[in-house]
Amino acid sequence: MTSNQLHYFTKITEFFGRVLGPDYEVALHDISDQQGALVAVANGHISGRSIGHLASDKLLGIIENHEYEGNDFVLHQYGMSPNGKILCSSTMFIKDETGQLIGALCINFDDSRYRELSQKVFNLCHPDALVDTNFRFDTTKVPLKAESSKHAKLHGAPDSSAYEIISAELKEQNLKPANMTLKDKLRIISALDSKGVFLIKGAVKDAAEIFGCSQATMYRHLSKIKEL
Hints:
Elements: H1 3-20, E1 24-30, E2 37-42, H2 57-65, E3 73-80, E4 86-95, E5 101-109, H3 112-125, H4 130-134, H5 162-172, H6 182-194, H7 203-211, H8 215-227
Antiparallel strand pairs: 1-2, 1-5, 3-4, 4-5
Helix pairs in contact: 5-7, 6-8, 7-8
């Protein structure tokens, strides 16, 4: 990417970051060196990335497979950031006059604040029925867990499920449901809720099975953590 192009798209990155607001990360990648390093980023707090971080595995895969040749952009792909947030990402491919990829402008949306607000509204109506009925998440797009890397890992795990995610969280924390105190359970449930796990269809039922309690008890635990 030339200095003029870099300057131009850096300004666009800043513009979109200011217009869209703090729930949208806008990231500009320079692809000219095949590393896809971040050269500009607005609202980087969302993924925890800063200038110099390399491109995600997803973006690098697009580069290696030349998927950009027949597309100008890709929209609404779900993945998990290095800091554990589920993001909805869209990418515009920046090409030169010959059609060669020279950069990528990515917009990553963190909708956690809106999901939390929506869940509170439904909780006011009827927690046992409406929440479980109206909140859904495509399990084919939810990654198992965040990858431990200094680089962004915005890619999904097609075979993941709520049961597997909850089990993985317990394993990572080295906890067994039978030996957990109420404080432990609330801490784990809060961590899972912050990652959007309970938006997955059947997640409350899976959690109740794993924790050895009823679904009604799980809803009480969820209501409890909202009050903390």
